[in-house]
Design brief:
7-stranded mixed β-sheet; globular; 2 domains; binds fe (ii) ion; 25% strand; alpha+beta; 446 residues; Purple Acid Phosphatase, chain A, domain 2; Immunoglobulin-like
């Protein structure tokens, strides 16, 4: 499109055929924001479905469906949602989203790696996009355009509201704050790249004005309350973290990891999170975030090694957050996680070195939509994972998403998987289901 701004008319209705239009207006799509519009509609009724569409230049968009949350103070009987992450376009089809769209969901939570910034991985590509690594704003925009051309992804966006947060690949693999993956890139140059990645993310995803980026800064962490049933603390573990202390990979335990200056949240976000948990009225307190909080040890035998890009690279803060959950008796903390392209179900205690350490929270780690292709972790054996990490109650290396059904009494998680993504049409199955009863942070097979 050219530099001109384009008026876009929007409509919100109580019915799918737009007989009962409740609000409408015009937003200006500007070239400075990739001709995106972000409409915030006030004054809708709580806890009900709406339909919306756009018209511009004589064209009418498909119809999208969304819903409002229950009123503050209301205790809804149920929330059904799914969470997903890691959708590398060229390595697999988005079959998981086709199945997700057939579920009856109130909400989708996306935990990052919505795009991947690297050049086409030709050897693994089943649908190559042919583009090089993205560095500049226009390239990030093109990458979103490629990903968003996928009909299953489009249909899922149209089927339910999304709550999104990013991980690393929306900018650069394994970056930390102002530090690039590539040590030869200086901070100023990397912050210019981060500004481009953040801006394109804002443009292409359903975010409010509160997230409007300013240069390399964008306020993405926020809290959403589904009545008194569930409070979602949507976290950003990339923008404010200190550099991985010992590189990005697995490292043996080191006193460096207990340095109180190491942080994955940043001081402000940590205070905001802990304070919000202390005052939460919710039955379920969700940490919707990127990287695994549980320790994962993948080496058989006595040798120990933990991953530096995950919470275990920031062990001081990991323990501090988990201790806070225990000391303040935070109601039903549930961590939901992406990043690792495999499914895990974990019980979380503050001190993983003590076998009698009681769990204070549970963590559901969802696999990738497509990243990794058909075999994401060949060689990582479920029996080894279980033996090395007694707090891990389930491990699976298929693609898919996690469906959650939340009531005042219990949280049920179903690991929905597809056996292949290298060609379309894989059926979906439930690889495992767990239930957590309110007041008891233990994973019980459903
Ligand atoms: Fe990923």
């Amino acid at each position: 499109m050219g530099p001109e701004s384009v008026p876009v008319h929007w409509m919100v209705a109580e019915d799918e055929s737009f007989k009962r239009i409740v609000q409408q207006g015009t937003a200006l799509a500007e070239s400075a924001w990739a001709h995106s519009v972000h409409v915030e509609v006030a004054g809708l009724k709580p806890d009900r479905w709406y339909w919306y569409r756009f018209t511009a230049g004589g064209a009418t968009s498909p119809v999208g469906r969304t819903r409002t949350f229950p009123a503050p103070g209301a205790l809804p009987a149920k929330l059904s949602f799914a969470f997903a992450s890691c959708q590398k376009y060229e390595v697999g089809y988005y079959t998981a989203y086709e199945h997700m769209a057939r579920e009856d969901l109130d909400l989708v939570v996306h935990l990052g790696d919505y795009i991947y910034e690297k050049g086409d991985s030709k050897s693994e590509a089943v649908r190559p996009h042919g583009q090089a690594e993205v560095l500049e704003l226009d390239d990030y925009r093109k990458r979103y355009a490629i990903y968003k051309s996928d009909p299953a992804l489009q249909a899922m966006h149209a089927a339910a509201p999304w709550v999104v947060t990013w991980d690393d690949h929306e900018v650069n693999n394994n970056y930390a704050g102002a530090v690039s993956e590539d040590p030869t890139v200086d901070r100023a140059a990397f912050l210019r790249r981060r500004a481009a990645g953040y801006r394109a993310y804002y443009e292409h995803l359903p975010l409010r004005r509160s997230a409007l980026p300013a240069g390399p800064d964008m306020l993405l962490y926020r809290r959403l309350e589904f009545g008194r049933l569930a409070s979602f603390n949507v976290l950003d573990t990339r923008q404010y973290r200190t550099d991985q202390p010992l590189g990005d990979g697995f490292q043996p335990p080191s006193p460096v990891l207990l340095d109180p200056h190491g942080t994955i949240l940043g001081e402000q976000q940590r205070k905001w999170l802990l304070d919000g948990l202390d005052h939460s009225p919710a039955t379920w307190n969700v940490l919707a975030q990127q990287v695994m909080m549980a320790r994962n040890e993948e080496v058989p035998g006595a040798e120990r090694a933990y991953h530096m890009d995950k919470w275990t690279g920031y062990e001081y803060e990991r323990q501090a957050v988990l201790r806070h959950l225990r000391e303040r008796a935070i109601a039903n903390p549930v961590v939901i996680t992406g990043d690792i392209h495999t499914n895990w179900a974990n019980e979380l205690g503050p001190d993983a070195d003590r076998p009698d350490d009681a769990a204070v929270a549970v963590e559901f780690v969802g696999t990738s939509i497509s990243s990794g292709g058909d075999e994401a972790k060949p060689g990582l054996d479920a029996a080894v994972v279980r033996a090395e990490n007694p707090w891990v109650k389930f491990f699976n290396d298929e693609r898919g998403y996690v469906r959650c059904e939340v009531t005042p009494e219990a949280w049920r998680a179903d690991y929905r998987t597809v056996a292949y993504v290298s060609r379309p049409g894989a059926p979906v199955r439930t690889a495992a289901s767990f239930v957590v009863n309110s007041g008891r942070p233990i994973l019980e097979p459903a």
